[in-house]
Every structure is written in C-alpha cells, then in structure tokens.
Predict the structure.
Amino acid sequence: MPRTRADEKVLSYKDVVLRESDLAILSGLYFLNDRIIDFYFSHLTSCPDASYLKDLLQPFQFSSRKLIRFPINDNEDVNLAEGGSHWSLLAFYDANVFVHHDSLRELNTTDAKRVYRAVIAYMESDAKYTVCSTMPAQANGYDCGLYVTATAHAICEWYSNLPKDLKELWFSDIQKGITSSHVSEMRNDILALVRSLMSKEQDM
C-alpha cells in the first residue's frame, strides 16, 4: 500500500516518532492519539525524580521513585493500535498513594484501578487509590488528552517547587491552574514544541 503524506515522519524524539498526521491532529479539534501523549510525557523531563511507566518496565524501580505518571486509556484490546476513546491520568506519589485524574467524572475508573492493582502487586507498599476531587471537567468529547497533558505538567510544576516538609498533594494547584482556556492553549503549545524540535533536528 503506497505511503501518503500523512505517514511522513516529521520528528524523532527519544523513542517517539511523530508524523504529518499528528501535526494535523494538533492543528484541529481532535482527540489526541497515543503518539502525541507519549511524546509529551517523554518531554516532561523538568520534573525531578519523575518517571514514565515505560522507563520502569525493565526492571521495575518503584522503590527509587517519588513520582510516576501513568496515562490511562480505555482501550480494552492491546492489539489495537490507537484504540480507545478516553484518556485520564493516574499519578503515584511518595510510595503511599495513587491519584486518578479524570476530566469525565471517573469514566476511566475501571481502567485506572486495573493499572493500580497490576502495579501495586510489584511494590513493597500499601499505597492507596484515591481520586483527585478538584479535577476540572472537560466541556467536549475530544479534549481529554489535553487535560491529561495539562494535569501531568501541573503535577510536575508542583513537585518541582515542593517544600520537602510539605505533605499536601497538588489538588489545589489542579483546581486553580487547569482552566478550559489553559487546556485549549495546550494544543498550540504542544504543536509549537513539536515544530521547535523539528527545526532543531533539521539544523543538526
């Protein structure tokens, strides 16, 4: 089958390859796919001591991590690429809590708890599962991925500025910082980030 312009590679970033079709998604009001979510999480390197799930798979290193972010998708068929219809975020913090953030009123609860139970089985911890009670709700059917990226960024900002003696979580930061306008801006911010990295890659 002949390749189309939409299949053309525009950026290789760490383990992620973005294509023209991904730029089209970011340029319009579309549901973010796996590659874009993966790209943004790979880019969040300003969050000290934080890791992304795939970084921990070989081997599991939970004991040495303070903050881990798990993008949750409701795709039930692991053989189906880019399946599912909703994203949410599960965040593990300081060996004692998993917090689920869902912009559609806990639509992904079953999927988030499935990941929680799978991960807790590998941990020497009695970490509990809870829900971010201040998580803003999306007003449409396609911005869930943007809420995930905005929430992940807000948590990293919270952690980066965290006084080490403070035990409160990031719930107030989520409530204050994640607005519908901020989430809308995330789409342009991610697109600008991709274009900036594309330009740097071309100059190398």
